[in-house]
Request: fold
Amino acid sequence: MHRRLMIYNPLGIGLLTVLMVVLAACGSNNTTTGGGQSNSTPTAQAQKCGGVSTYPNGKLANETTAKQVENCFWQAYQQCQAATLSFTKSGLDAGTIHAFTIASNNGQCSISDAIQTYIAPNPPRPGKTYACTSLTQQVDGLHFASCGELGD
Reply:
């Protein structure tokens, strides 16, 4: 079974379902966001590709922006350049924020997903960081693979 993250889908078919499946599928490396030392490129130097967000009904807030953000993140990954991409899945009064990061660790490219949840009107709570082993761009969007213990 292969699960996909579709940041861009011009037909809008099944975007939320597939997006929720893949984001839920990224496994945990059992670390919390923030703190600790790393050999990765500092986030302050990372290219900020931008953010993608959905409305409570699951539709993209802006498909054009989503495609631009996807392309920026994909280009950075191909060159193993530090970059960030944020994805916010909004509900009526709660949501999830995913901060995807590309880093170069001793010449090897890595992808992480720091997840936070929130319930309005409170600020987001710290969450866990998940690691994926690779990223591909396909017609229907970006696909994150081998995301921890839960797979693709």
In short: The two ends are 8 Å apart (CA to CA). Residues 5 and 20 are 8 Å apart (CA to CA).
